[in-house]
Write a structure and sequence with these properties.
With 451 residues, this protein is an alpha/beta fold. The protein folds into 3 domains: 121 residues, 2-Layer Sandwich (Gyrase A, domain 2); 114 residues, Four Helix Bundle (Hemerythrin (Met), subunit A) (Up-down Bundle); 156 residues, Rossmann fold (3-Layer(aba) Sandwich), CATH 3.40.50. It is built from 16 helices and 12 strands. A 6-stranded mixed beta sheet has the order 3-4-5-2-1-6, with helices on one face. Strands 8-9-7-10-11-12 form a 6-stranded mixed beta sheet, with helices on both faces. Helix 3 runs antiparallel to helix 4. The chain starts with 8 loop residues before the first strand and ends in a 5-residue tail after the last helix. Bound molecules: guanosine-5'-diphosphate and zinc ion.
Length: 451
Amino acid sequence: MDYQQGDTIVAIATPPGEGGVGIVRLSGPRALSIATALCGGSAAEPLTPRYAHFRRFYTRDGRVIDHGITLYFPAPHSYTGETVVELQGHGSPLALASLLAEAIARGARAARAGEFSERAFLNGRLDLAQAEAVADLIHARSDAQARAAAASLEGAFSQAVDGIHRQLLHLLALAEAGLDFSEEDLGDTHEQAIADGLTQLGRQVARLLRQAEQGARLARGGRVVLAGRPNVGKSSLMNALARRESAIVTAIPGTTRDLLREEILLNGLPVELIDTAGLRQAGDAVEAEGIARARHILHSAQLILLVADASVGWQAEDEVILRDLPEGPRRIIWNKSDLVSAPPPTPAGEVAVALSAQTGAGLDALHQSLIEALGMHGDNGPFSARRRHVEALEDSLDQLNTAKDLHSVGGVPELVAQSLREAAGALARVTGQIDAEDILGEIFSRFCIGK
Ligand code: GDP
Ligand code: ZN
């Protein structure tokens, strides 16, 4: 695929704000000509591929914006697979904005979010899972997340998928051969080979699915939402947890701690704690809006902690809140247990943890409870993955099981082959190789049946 036909995109590649270095990146067929013009036009020496050139950067009317290093990566040996030029100036927001504006005035288009990686995928520089790993790496909030995303980017996940995909196509070719030949031609071993292959591949996909589930959990992090009446101690509990678990260390603009939200590291994985009552307070001006937001947040929670006051026991108002909670894992938290000798009776069918946000007693039990409910046992996934990948692997496993069932009862070979084809197609969705030619190619190259 030749993406050089498309337009040339430009973006400031470094984060907003002041810094030592600021980079403007261009990609597309006109990247070189636009960058050359920005660097003073034909008067300057031409850019040598992959060499660092010291250059001044100019406006169209000849004013110097900044100076720095220019790097030229000719297609296809660049991040995007297109011609890429990077202008590395100083990390001045104003100079970078001018450079960007000049590039646009000279015919480049402001890149959409992720467009460089999207082009890298379209040009075959990264497969889909790797392109997604770029985003996961950028957004990683913990060491474990960053390591897993880097492994995915290096292709750990894609290679595992591709390896199974290849075996699946081979098995499909075997099954297809059965469609064209009678059993006498192929011999007894043929059916046995298919049966063995189905068992083998089913195990491999199941294992990869488990790893992908871990990877997806890891990439997503956790979200725990606190609900409860005023004054039961939700804010105190959030603070106590933030103090106990190591708080997130990366300083990211716009995520300063506030009353409503804390981020903690649980077994090295980031977990967001949100106080819905706080949301409601924040939405006081438009109460309905605040309640709608709280409801939305509750639905997105992986675990809900319904905090209640152990010193007064279960109240009618607690019951109202409980009945209003969406389906999903939850715990009743008996806070202020320091005020009573034993926690009060818990509503039937509910799991409770008694603790004191004030003294810290019972926080260990809550910690265990969180790890269990969020599935964060510390056996982090070997690579990062997403819901999309998990679903594709689930589909693939379903189809494999169907093929196995059909085959074991001597079912119609066409249907076995069809299920295998679907299983392979589902796997291919992970890396974005969704080409039916694959399967045909595999069949033709391995079986010179000459029919
Ligand atoms: P929220 O409205 O649910 O966020 O409750 P707060 O966290 O603001 O706490 C309400 C009151 O309960 C404050 O006076 C806290 O000091 C007190 N409180 C919170 N947790 C405990 C606890 O574990 N034990 C005791 N004795 N008091 C607590
Ligand atoms: Zn509060």
